[in-house]
Known about the structure:
This protein is of the alpha+beta class. It has six helices and ten strands. The strands form three sheets. The chain has a four-stranded mixed sheet with strand order 4-5-1-10, with helices on one face. Strands 6-9-8-7 form a four-stranded antiparallel sheet, covered by helices on one side. α1 (13-22) crosses α2 (24-30), α1 packs across α3 and α5 crosses α6.
Amino acid sequence: MELHILNIDSITQEMQRDVAERMPLRYARSQQFKFPNDALRCIGVGVLLLKAFPNLKESDLQTNEHGKLFLENECEFNVSHSGSYVVLATDSQSVGVDIEQIRERHFRVATKVFTPEEIQWMNEDVPHRFFTLWTQKESLLKAVGCGITVPLETISVMPFQDGSPVEYNGSLWFCKTISYEGYMISVCGKQPTDFQIVHL
Length: 200
């Protein structure tokens, strides 16, 4: 398993031209964003996809019914972005990744997305644990392939906190969470999760 990490501030003009040439639909979509950083995050996803899959053709990319990108006959991958970073996780089996910037926010939303046990655990170290739980839940659902289409409070990710798997949708799922440059990143997969970080 690999975790590719890209700071959008490091995206060069050459990278942008490469995405424009090889992924014209993505590049065109990036130009529709009002704010420059939104455009760069969109382009950044293309940069990471082209790095991870050197022979990629944009027409090869497909989406499932919930909008998750995939490639036929290739390793599994998933992407996420937040703030200054775009991340892409690859694995031989289903994989999900989520990155969130650790920041102060209205944590009252926790009562709508976390179980009572998770809220009790979170309250010992807010906001660090809030974003731990949030990224773990989102990466799990992205690995399953359904995204946030089920009530988050119905899923407990507390087993992840001691390295145990979570059983969901008929499978066991493992998760690894790291703190990175003021961000929380969780990667979820079907095997005990460890990953090599690849910086671009």
